[in-house]
Amino acid sequence: METSTSMPLCEIDDLRIGFRTHDGTLAPAVRGLSLTLGHGERLGIVGESGSGKSLTGRALLGLLPPAAQWCAGRMVFDGEDLLALSARRRRKLCGAQMGMILQDPKYSLNPVMTVAQQMREAFALREPSLGRKAMREKIVAALEAVHIRHPERVADAYPHELSGGMGQRVMIAMMVSSGPRLLVADEPTSALDVLVSMQVLAVLDEMIGRHGTGLIFISHDLPLVMSFCDRVVVMYAGRVVETCAARDLVHAQHPYTRGLLAANPPLMSPPDELPVLQRDPAWLEPLEGATR
């Protein structure tokens, strides 16, 4: 399907996700969320744990848990209506054009399969006709592309034999090497130290730049999002409360966003006491013009 780059790569309108509690009531987790992502854009989603960031990314790829009850007014990827697609077409689309990097390779990679076996499964979904030798060459080339030394050895290793940074590079290689149009990165550096995090982000930056991939970057790290993304969506209790250019996040106006920023004190001359975020029930109400 031919699409115009002037149109958004991805659109979500009025996404709602909830879970049944023990007494049968529906607990809302995402409340009428709407957002857009442009071609090649890097969109950061920030907010506290439980604000609905990861559920939003999973809903886009059709990876919500079975217990989730959800609906959306509109969910479009590259001109295709995701709500109208068959399960088979949705799986094919996710395998080839949409991908997700999860936050901890220790839990995302299968511990009883080698790296090559797991990458072979992922690549076979996109190129089922590849022979054994060609598949091996593709796996090694993908590992080389994310700057893994000794890719042949790493391909035959099990996840527990890899460091956290190495495992995350394997995840990036699996998801990005085929050139997806859209990538959801859910806290991809949360389990890594600062130096390794910067190395992994440099690899991710290179790969998505090479393929022109649109990125949804989910994180708690506001300074990182400001430096790595183009635009930021701030979520509170399942709602979008503010959207702005990443470079303007330090000038955010919403009191919740200001509270998040205040929770990241400067290393030089930090305050004697961190301010406590004072929550307002009015934040649960949708804000006019804040969802795009």
List the helices and strands and how they pair.
Layout: E1 10-20, E2 26-37, E3 42-46, H1 53-61, E4 69-71, E5 74-77, E6 80-81, H2 87-96, E7 98-101, H3 105-108, H4 115-126, H5 132-145, H6 151-155, H7 164-176, E8 182-186, H8 194-211, E9 214-218, H9 222-228, E10 231-236, E11 239-245, H10 255-262
Parallel strand pairs: 3-9, 3-10, 7-8, 8-9
Antiparallel strand pairs: 1-2, 1-4, 1-5, 5-6, 10-11
Descriptive notes:
The chain has 292 residues and is α/β, with parallel strands linked by helices. The chain has a domain of 191 residues: Rossmann fold. Helix content is 34%, strand content 22%. The strands form two sheets. A six-stranded mixed β-sheet has the order 7-8-9-3-10-11, sandwiched between helices. Strands 1, 2, 4, 5 and 6 form a five-stranded antiparallel β-sheet that branches. Strand 1 and strand 2 form a beta hairpin. Helix 4 crosses helix 5, helix 4 packs parallel to helix 7 and helix 7 runs parallel beside helix 8. The protein is globular, with a radius of gyration of 20 Å. 37% of the residues are buried.
